[in-house]
């Protein structure tokens, strides 16, 4: 079974309360090096310390029961799966992971519990909420300009940030429609739904707020043969990523951690 690695309470960064419950990252990456890098990037760019983020690797086996009362919030990272793929083409592992994360999302929504889903979070969260997710608005690997909506400008995670900013993307599927009742927060020219909020406390981004250029370059190298770009062009893709200025999205992730850290 996939084991939740809990962290003992410890003294925290000054921006948080002296003691807090950890956040929980639900991960699905098979490659150990990439999984560990993703974990590190989430706690570092959110402003947390490593001992303030627990992790469960759902791809390793059935998830143990998760008690929401043990955590400040749930984070769903990216992954190799596409929720919109035909069911008959999905592996047994993908079917199990999607079922288990979907059931977790239902409990989170029922409690209006804090959740942040990045990239694959769109497929797992938005699909469960009734959105249409398909390959209409996939985006190539690189940086795109994100535009914050009027609703986004007053949202706690985006208020006061630039109206437009660059963010890293690279995805085959995306929301074609918003989940019913969701609040649209941001878009790009090539993908209308880059960020939305559901109820008060569930957030989903299509872009990657947990990635800096170094982390993205590492992930690009690991997924060079997964159909996101022509492998022969990998050097050009990485060069474009490293030359991009992407410094706003991490603040969105940090605001989520700051807003929902609880003791």
Automatic annotation (TrEMBL):
Pfam families: GATase (PF00117). SUPFAM superfamilies: Class I glutamine amidotransferase-like. GO terms for cellular component: cytosol. Residues 67-218 form the Glutamine amidotransferase domain. NCBIfam families: PRK07567.1 (NF005743). This is GMP synthase (Glutamine-hydrolysing). It comes from Rarobacter incanus.
